[in-house]
Design goal:
The chain is of the alpha/beta class and 261 residues long. 33% of the residues lie in helices and 26% in strands. It is built from eight helices and seven strands. The chain starts with 17 loop residues before the first helix and ends with a strand.
């Protein structure tokens, strides 16, 4: 995948990170899921479409609350991992390899659409009217994001420095607490009804954080094998020198909920 305003147009491939993604990116804290439930969505028989589902983190973690989940992702490897994890847990989740722009469900199929960690990858001129079409009257569109805070957390900051050393075009750095982006195209069909940000502490082991970083767009999805090997050694050495075996990394969660007009 190549997007001009992301990483200065450098290509990236989430499929290269799928095994790491499945193992190391299921990290959202309980506060994240509780907030979603308190919004009254993704539970109790509602039909939910998760766009950019990756390895199905959101559907799998919220499955217990009774929604009927469908997940789509552009990368076949991601969907394969999602299917394995769902089947292993006995979860009935429909999972499809499909671009968000190509979804083709009947009108008024879903009560909720979720887009977690992926809103900036979509072609909003196409997805905004499509999402509106497949939502039921009064349906909700939830835009979700969680990011680490490199200026407030030493380990996060040092990890970013090393990613930029080996991949200087990576643009996923320097995050601060701010509202998640709601592209204007969605406001033609939706009204904003809730937007909020809050900070959380996310626990990791050294191996867990190392894997989480390797599974990010700037590392495993875009570095060459030689760059990745060099980054791996230096990042692990940094963790051994600066982090205990178990530690927490400061993150923030940012959520916007829109309602179909």
């Amino acid at each position: 995948m190549k997007i001009n305003n992301i990483d200065k147009g450098k290509s990236f491939d989430w499929g290269k990170t799928s095994e790491d993604y499945a193992k190391y990116r299921d990290i959202y804290p309980e506060e994240f899921y509780r907030y979603i439930l308190d919004l009254g969505v993704c539970k109790d028989g509602q039909k939910v479409l998760d766009i950019g589902t990756g390895t199905g983190v959101l559907p799998r973690n919220m499955y217990q609350y009774g929604a009927k989940w469908t997940g789509t992702d552009i990368e076949e490897n991601q969907i394969e991992q999602a299917k394995k994890l769902a089947e292993r847990s006995g979860m009935d989740i429909e999972l499809f390899t499909c671009k968000a722009e190509d979804i083709d469900f009947p009108e008024k199929t879903f009560d909720v659409i979720t887009a977690c960690q992926c809103i900036w990858y979509l072609d909003h001129k196409i997805t905004a009217p499509k999402f509106a079409r497949v939502l039921k009257d009064g349906g909700k569109f939830l835009i979700l994001y969680m990011g680490w805070l490199p200026y407030e957390d030493e380990i996060a900051g040092k990890s970013e420095e090393l990613i930029l050393k080996y991949n200087p075009t990576w643009s996923g750095c320097g995050d601060t607490v701010h509202p998640v982006w709601v592209p204007d195209e969605y406001l033609e069909n939706f009204r904003m009804i809730k937007q909020e940000e809050f900070e959380v502490e996310v626990p990791f082991t050294r191996a867990g954080w190392h894997g989480r970083m390797r599974a990010c767009r700037g590392v495993g999805a875009s570095m060459s094998p030689e760059e990745l090997a060099a980054w791996e050694k230096e990042h692990w050495d940094m963790l051994m020198s600066n982090a205990s075996e178990q530690f927490s990394v400061k993150h923030y969660i940012s959520i916007a909920m829109l309602e179909l007009k």
